[in-house]
Structure formats: structure tokens, C-alpha cells
Amino acid sequence: MKTEPLVLGIETSCDETGVGVVRGHTLLADEVASSVEEHARFGGVVPEVASRAHFEAMVPTVQRALDTAGITLADVDAIAVTAGPGLAGALLVGVAAAKAYALAAGKPIYGVNHLAAHVAVDTLEHGPLPEPAIALLVSGGHSSLLQVDDLAGRVEPLGATIDDAAGEAFDKVARLLGLPFPGGPPIDRAARDGQIVIPFPRGLSAARDLVEHRFDFSFSGLKTAVARWVEARQRAGEPVPVNDVAASFQEAVCDVLTNKAVDACLDRGVRTLVIGGGVAANSRIRALAQERCDKHGITLRVPRPKLCTDNGAMVAALGAHLVAAGAAPGALGLPTDSAMPITVVTA
Amino acid sequence: MVVDSSTPAVTAALVRVEDPELPGAGDPQVTVLAERVTVDGRAHGELLAPQIQAVLAEGGAAPGDLAAVVAGTGPGPFTGLRAGMVTAAALGHALDIPVYGVCSLDGIGHGQPGRLLVATDARRKEVYWAVYSGGVRVDGPAVDKPAAVSVEVDAAAGDGADRYAEVFGLPLLPPRYPSARALAALAADRVRAKAPGETLTPRYLRRPDAVAPGERKPALP
Ligand SMILES: Nc1ncnc2c1ncn2[C@@H]1O[C@H](COP(=O)(O)OP(=O)(O)OP(=O)(O)O)[C@@H](O)[C@H]1O
Ligand SMILES: [Mg+2]
């Protein structure tokens, strides 16, 4: 029997330098060096700061991943790297490094789509993905519903946010509540001690919006509603119940996301929902999605929180899937694409 | 392998560094066996690896034959500079061979007679510059507006010196971009001595553009 492909994955699309090693669906190493603390005081990722950090972290992180996996570069079958979407300068560091490793070790290189990798990472936790599956991709820069017919090449977008991404909404609301960046984890924590008492709006959920935007999202109105509610309290000289605001905001986001995801499964007659991206680490979206999927007999797959945020293992996982599927590798001249569409799984 | 991406001239060169102690060593002791230079300020990340592959093929060498990597460490525009430097670092790491850094401006000023200003284009109407006396750097590297560079020199070289020739008012000498041969020559002693490899530090010379966000605009009127 042919052994499963051993793949090294490199991720540098945003502020995490991630290097992972995967054999088939088995995770062997997942090393992440984050520059998130350097960005915190700016309230968002500063591209050049992220790129400089990727440069410094690249070689040490690759070495740590090889050590953890107990392999050398000569052992791998391929190198996979995020080619897009993401910050142009940050992507370039990972792609240039991956090419050098591929060239030096004489290995094929796969330039892969970061968003498809957020979906593929689930195979490390739950094995091969049944196809078709509906994927809800919710991260700092994206919020999309996809139909995955073939993870190695056929992904159909069903809908996406028309303004802010879900993670971005968490980050912005955290900022106005005085919580640190990135805002997802502190809101998740604060919400546990709060009550869902404020009726914040559910974007693009009214009957008239569903005609054209059934599978689209909008979070900018929600963000403004939270800001108005908080400011009204402050102007009246009343304390802001941070935990209740966090819980109510989080509920509004998770309610819409899970509702539309389940609706997509039912509409397409698809029995599997996979959730990926940083916001999939949220405890409420995980619980609510489970509840709603159970009700409709849909199998829910969400990877463990550490694999939801950016990492190299997800890139390696998609790379291993591509190798196993016999996909053609990329060229040493492969470009980065900061706006790589989800329909392109590998460059 | 010599790599430089500090200017629009994306450079890869396969170079032989001979040991003068060995019998039969030729002169010059640094020989460029194959070189690829593509002038394109926007595609460093796409051009470099294929160029490295091409010079290896032309020189009849495999990656495993390399003894060291020499990298131009800038100064240069951040994104392009990093592409070359991370390529060099990863190449050295993968092959378990040392990587040596050389100031990219030295690749223009090295070995030039007299007093020379080397200036490369730093965009934003500025130049990266350094001054050489008898081919040795005596001032810089620094980044400034051309008019703010006041130095006593006989001539100037580099694409920045050309671009702002009217401001500098100096006779222009070649080369326009760092020469792979010069970069190799500047690292030749380290290569011969099998000196320990270096952790490369890009010469950014500028801080990242990063502004802390201002006060949030109120959502209520
Ligand atoms: N527990 C959580 N609850 C809600 N949001 C979370 C949680 N943990 C992380 N996030 C959010 O996830 C986002 C980061 O996710 P990820 O690392 O996938 O995004 P990204 O890489 O920045 O964006 P993209 O993948 O779109 O390029 C941040 O916006 C963060 O606030
Ligand atoms: Mg991400």
C-alpha cells in the first residue's frame, strides 16, 4: 500500500507565521509564531510589522516543525504554501521561503488558497470530508458560505459578507468595549458571564433581504447598533454592562451565521456542515451550530479551536489532499495573489 | 550562490570562490559561472527562484554542490529586499550551508577608485546612499532626500544617482545595480574560512508605516 503523502505547510498570509507537518490526515507538527502582540496597540494588523516578523520567524519555525514531526526536509513529498488571499507583503515571505525549500530539497510546491485550507484543516480532526459539504468560513477577513464539491478543485461560493467580516466585527466591538485585540477571545469570555438581553439586529435576515441575499451576511449595521447602544448608556452617565453587550452581540452574529449555514445545507440537500476560520473557535457558534444541525440531522464538523485560527497545519492538510488527489504542483515562479478567489484552490 | 533583491535588478549568480592557498587556483579567485539579472521592481518573488534554478543548471551544479549563500542585505525597498533575503536564508537552512550577508550598496562601491557616492532608488523621492573611498565604505548606509545628501566625492553610481543626476551634479559611473561578483568578493574570505553562518538582518533603515488608530467616531449624532 502506498503511504499517505507527507507535506510541510507554510502560512504567512496575516500575522501568524505557521509551519505544519501532516501525513495524510494525521497532524505531526503545528508550530506558530505570532506577531499579534506587536499589532495590539494599533488595534489591527500592521502589514509591514507582520512581514518583518515573518522574515525573522521563518527559518526557526520551519526547524521547530521538522523537529516536532521528527523528520527532515528530505523526507517530505511536497511543500505547500499559502499563495493568497492575504496581505501581499506577508504572503511573499512565505512563498519565497517555500520556493527556496522546494528548490533546495528537490520537492514539488503547491501554492494554495488560505480559505480552502481553513476548510481542509478539519480533515486532520475528522478524516476525509464527505463531498459535497457546505462550508461556513468565518475569519478576520472573510465570511463566506461555500459548497465544496471537491476540496481539490471545485468550490462554489454561495454567499459572503457584503461589508465587514465576522471576525472584524468581533474586533471592532471589542475595541469599543475597551477589550484587547484580537477581540474574539475576550468577547467570548465576557459573554459567558453575560445575559443575552439586548435585541441587536440580525443583518440581511428580513424577508425582503432574503430574496437577493439569502446566503450573504452583513455585520456593519450590527456594529453600529452596538456602538449606538453603548454610547447612549455612556451619555446618560450609566455604566456599560460589558458582559451583557458581549453576549448579546455574539448571539446576533452566531444566530445569523448558523441560521444561514443550516439553510444552505437544507436548500442544497447537503448533509455535512464544516465551519472553519478564526471565528469557528467561538464557543457560542460551536454550541448553536451543533444544536441546529442536530435538529435537522446534519453532521457538523468543527476543528478544535487551535486549528481554527491561522496555522501551517491547515496548509499542509490541503497540500496533502492535493497530492493524494493527483493535483499538478505549481511552478517555482508561482505568484502570490492577495485577492485569490475561493474558486482557485491551488495556483 | 549569490542573491540580491535590494533594487529592481533581481539577481542570482553561481560563483566559484577559489582558495589562493590551493595549487592551481586561478586568478581572479572569484569567478562568475552563471548569472541572471532581471530588472523588474514588482516581481522579485516570482523571478528569483527560477533564476537560481537557471544559474545552477547553466553552471552544471546541483543545489547540494553549493558551499555557501551570499545575500545582499540592502538597504532596499522592504518587500523586494525580503524576498531575496528569505530565499537566501531558507536555501542555507535547507542545504545546511552558511549564509553570509553583504551590504547591497557595497556591491556597487566595491573596488572603485577615488571617492564615490553610491545611491539607489528608495522610492518616495529618496535614495539609499553610502560613500566609498578607494572602494571601501566610509559613510552610510542611510536614506535621505537627494538634496539632503551633502558629501565630498568625485563621482556617483547606482540607479538613484542616475535618477537624481541633476540634483547630485556628479559624473556617473557604472554599475547601476549591485554586482554579484562584487558581493561574492566581499564575502570570499568568509567563504574560504568556512566562517559560521549569519542570521541575516535586512537593512530597512526606515520604520514600518504604522499609525495607532485615532479616537473612534461616535455612532450617535
Ligand atoms: N473565540 C473567538 N470568538 C470569536 N472570534 C474569534 C475567536 N477567536 C478568534 N476570533 C477571531 O478570528 C479572527 C482571526 O481569525 P483568522 O486567524 O482565521 O483570521 P485571518 O487570518 O486574520 O483572516 P483571513 O483568514 O480571512 O485571512 C479575528 O478576527 C479574531 O477576533
Ligand atoms: Mg485566516
From TrEMBL, chain A:
Binds 1 Fe(2+) ion per subunit. One of its GO terms (molecular function) is iron ion binding. Its cofactor is Fe(2+). InterPro entries: ATPase_NBD (IPR043129), Gcp-like_dom (IPR000905), KAE1/TsaD (IPR017861), TsaD (IPR022450). Residues 27-316 form the Gcp-like domain. It comes from the Bacteria. It is an enzyme of class 2 (transferase). Its EC number is 2.3.1.234. It is found in: Cytoplasm. It catalyses: L-threonylcarbamoyladenylate + adenosine(37) in tRNA = N(6)-L-threonylcarbamoyladenosine(37) in tRNA + AMP + H(+). HAMAP family: TsaD. This is tRNA N6-adenosine threonylcarbamoyltransferase. It comes from Dactylosporangium siamense. The lineage of its organism: Bacteria, Bacillati, Actinomycetota, Actinomycetes, Micromonosporales.
